[in-house]
Amino acid sequence: MTQQHPKHATPDHPIHELIAHRWSPYAYAPRPVPEADLETCLEAARWAPSSYNDQPWTFLLARRQDEAEFETMLSCLLPGNQAWAKDAGALLLTVVRRRFAHNGNPNKAAEHDIGLAVGMLVVQATELGLHVHQMIGLDAEKARQTYGVPEGHDVLTAIAIGYADTSGERTDDLAARDAKARSRRALAESVYSGRWGHPAFEERERP
Q: How many domains does the chain have?
């Protein structure tokens, strides 16, 4: 039997294999992502649900093979994220539009909906053998100025897409972080019913 990567989830209940397999690396293999795969990932994001079908998301893309553009986007990240994201195959910035296009009213679901779009992208990327790491650590105002993001839109997050370095040859801190197992709270700690703090499901022993 093939040994699973330590980041492979051990769920308490059955889930899709793509979800179990998904994880966010710090150590990337410095190679570009094929154009067709980038298009497929962003097409998956395009078909995400959104309130009133408003689609309040925009993505700014920098490909690794376009060195100048890649460095420009990399410079919008905070230094701690630049240190590892420099090896990604592509970088994205997510931009959220705060008001509905059809009536100009505030869209309280805008960030929720952009999260759904990125979730779709992440699952599609995983199916293609890619790995995605999302970041909140960026200089949003610098990104706004650099890319001319208009009023009413906010740069929200950054995303690294590429191939995890699973060669086993790296011994740096990034590889050590990637070797740690994933964990999540039990459902009983985050799904309630009837009143706050009352678990919606009975706890079961892990199989």
A: 2
| Spatial contact of 76 and 138, defined as CB atoms under 8 Å apart | yes
- Same-domain check for residues 40 and 125: yes
> Which of 28-32, 108-112, 180-184, 196-200 is the least confident region?
180-184
**pLDDT for res 207:** 52
Helix ranges (DSSP H) in 140-190:
140-147, 173-178
pTM value? 0.91
Separation between Cα atoms, residue 60 and residue 82, nearest integer Å: 17
194 and 159 share a domain? no
Q: How many CB atoms lie within 10 A of CB 117?
A: 23
**Residues across the chain:** 207
pLDDT tens for each residue of 135-158? 999 999 999 999 999 999 999 999
Within a domain: residue 17? no
7 and 28, same domain (yes or no): no
Judged by DSSP in three states, 78 sits in coil
Range of the domain at 34: 24-165
